[in-house]
Write a structure and sequence with these properties.
homodimer, alpha/beta, Isopropylmalate Dehydrogenase, eleven-stranded mixed sheet
Chain lengths: ~350, ~350
């Protein structure tokens, strides 16, 4: 199995990504094709003592898409951008899955234009795993499609349910619609129109509306929302978690001698917690609805996160997540057509 | 000055609200009119030794609107519901401001139908103060109007800016539009159409788009968003904060003897932090755009939160927040008409 890794366009430069790949081939049964500036990559491989590792190969790409470029335009004009070259490796079946930590917009655009959607999928959706009090919840869409139509939201629910089953090992995952109240009559135009579609869909275990406070509670496995809402909520959660931990640290540091001693004593216990909350542990978000497993990591991902994303990519390929999505979406769209004929 | 307090329809029953009122008249220069079931309120006043406090009076209301009733229908059919009776006290100028911790939807509906909007305001908006790393940020709309139009979002920005100035004492508050990226080209239909309106508006200090992670950072004072997004984000933040604190507690309790000792040692230091993060400290959210200060507290508010909300209501009246909104909205709508004529 071969994983394409786009090593360019990230916050810390290619060094963390190359190191992540070096770590990954030691842990998982896969080869990694490093896509980006060849001389830089080769030098980094040498510095990690991995220049002769046969499972790591390099594919040169002369261009990079920056975080602030217009994704659609950049993908169309920069034919030799690393994310475009890496995506083409999937299209040509040279690789089985992809990991990137560059611009999310550029990754989605490259996946759409150079890899293509699974037949029947209206719009791809970004599934982000997040820690809850009882395990892991997946939230989608976390940013691929804003102003999603109810039929996109329905497909998000179906794809998210498959993600939870195959990637998080949850049987019959509970699917909730993110809303401003539990009652069916609550919501905006979009969620009010989505609710009946989810309620009628037999491919999912729909438990009704859920609220913001349920995301981390552990009472729902798949949280379905629009790409705008998902993106804002995830970034707000990131900011709040940082703010709370900063405030805790400040309070302990300003709390006098005993508080400082106390801080030292609880440190080992909190290390486990840090691991539980760590977004690096999950590796990355998965772009669902395109023809191959396509992982999008945070721009500030360190080597460990990249390694874990490569591990998740291996899982995605082994568990045939894309074929399963293709099957279920075919069933859903076929059922929709039958209902359409009967009407 | 007289504050109307709706003591019914909350999670813990009227006892916390009546106690909050007893505490408030000791601390602030105001009278409180307690609206709800008279026998219950009188008994509670007696139990707090406040049955002869001349600054506390009771107004009987025979009905209550529950959390799960349809707000619009309930407000129209239950003419003697406590929130309706309390709102009528504002309309008849018997009271100057109102505090409620019953159903938010019912409060908004009562304010709309029984008190009315400030001239020129398209839709009222709920302003919620939230703690940031450097002080307090106000987020609005946190749930009054979903599917807000760009012109509603503009008025949210103007009203939120006045709130930050008068209630949070921030000079020239920085106004940001909650979005999925900082660039002007980022967003959904709603934010893309709102951005130019905010950019051109001279009544506010617009600093551009902000992201979810900026809400608690302290780099923006007024965060403008749609009522759906605001509601989901606030509830997600509430859930995440609870989840993190639960996880910290669990980690310390499961961390062995030393961790437990450490936990005890940091406790006093964390007490200050709890105060800083405590939503009770802020009392409540303010419904902006209606004809009198109208505070909506969390359904689970304890006496202290109610007392603080009454304090905030006193501030709102003293600082003439509604007149100031009326002035600025008149200026904005007038300017809009002039521009309209010139086009």
């Amino acid at each position: 199995m071969k994983i394409a890794l786009d090593v360019m366009g990230t916050d810390y430069g290619p060094k963390e990504l190359v190191l992540g790949a070096v770590m990954a081939v030691k842990e998982y049964k896969c080869d990694v094709v490093l896509v980006g500036d060849e001389p830089t990559i080769k030098e980094l491989l040498k510095s990690y003592g991995a220049e002769n590792e046969p499972r790591l190969t390099v594919r040169h790409a002369s261009e990079v898409i920056g975080m602030h470029e217009h994704p659609g335009i950049a993908v169309k004009t920069k034919k030799d951008a690393s994310i475009v070259v890496a995506t083409d490796l999937l299209r040509n079946k040279e690789c089985d899955a992809l990991v990137s930590s560059g611009s999310t917009g550029a990754a989605v655009a490259a996946a759409l234009f150079h890899l293509g959607r699974i037949r029947g999928v209206g719009r791809p959706s970004i599934a982000t795993p997040i820690p809850s009090l009882t395990g892991t919840t997946v939230l989608l869409d976390s940013g691929a499609k804003v102003d999603a139509k109810p039929e996109h939201m329905l497909q998000n629910a179906i794809m998210g349910s498959i993600y939870a089953e195959l990637m998080l090992n949850i049987k019959n995952p509970r699917v909730g619609l993110l809303n401003i109240g539990e009652e069916e009559i609550k919501g905006n135009e979009q969620t009010l129109a989505t609710y009946p579609l989810l309620k009628e869909e037999k491919l999912i275990n729909f438990i009704g509306n859920v609220e913001g406070r349920d995301i981390n509670k552990g009472n729902v496995d798949v949280v379905v929302c629009d790409g705008f809402v998902g993106n804002v909520v995830l970034k707000a959660a990131e900011g709040l978690a940082t703010a709370i931990l900063t405030m805790v640290k400040e309070a302990i540091l300003n709390g006098g001698f005993l508080a400082k001693i106390g801080g030292l004593l609880i440190k080992p216990a909190l290390r486990g917690l840090k691991k539980r909350l760590d977004p690096e542990a999950y590796g990355g978000a998965l772009l669902l609805g395109v023809r191959a497993p396509f992982f999008i990591c945070h721009g500030s991902s360190k080597a460990k996160a990249i390694k874990n994303a490569i591990g998740a990519a291996v899982d995605g390929v082994e568990r045939n997540i894309c074929s399963r999505i293709a099957e279920d979406i075919a069933r859903q769209t076929k059922a929709d057509k039958v209902v359409g004929t009967l009407r």
